[in-house]
């Protein structure tokens, strides 16, 4: 999926200073590689990590509304 610079900026703001964005080339099941960006947790914030694995369902129930509101806010500011 290709994201625009604006969309990447929204993600950068949402992920905040706790993460940095890194470019990677994962290898797919068929052996091909793709370019992708990932957000990596900064070591200096490791004390804030929980012991449970990350869950999309949990993120969706707890954080999706905040993420959508941030996207809308950024969109409104861009068009003001």
TrEMBL record:
SUPFAM superfamilies documented for this protein: Gamma-glutamyl cyclotransferase-like
Q: Where is the Gamma-glutamylcyclotransferase AIG2-like domain?
A: 2-59
Keyword annotations? Transferase
A Gene Ontology molecular function term for this protein is: transferase activity
The cross-references to PANTHER family, in alphabetical order and at most eight, read: AIG2-LIKE PROTEIN D
What role is this protein assigned?
Putative gamma-glutamylcyclotransferase.
* Protein family membership: Belongs to the gamma-glutamylcyclotransferase family.
Instruction: Indicate what this protein is called per its UniProt record.
Output: Putative gamma-glutamylcyclotransferase
What organism is listed for this UniProt entry?
Answer: Edaphochlamys debaryana
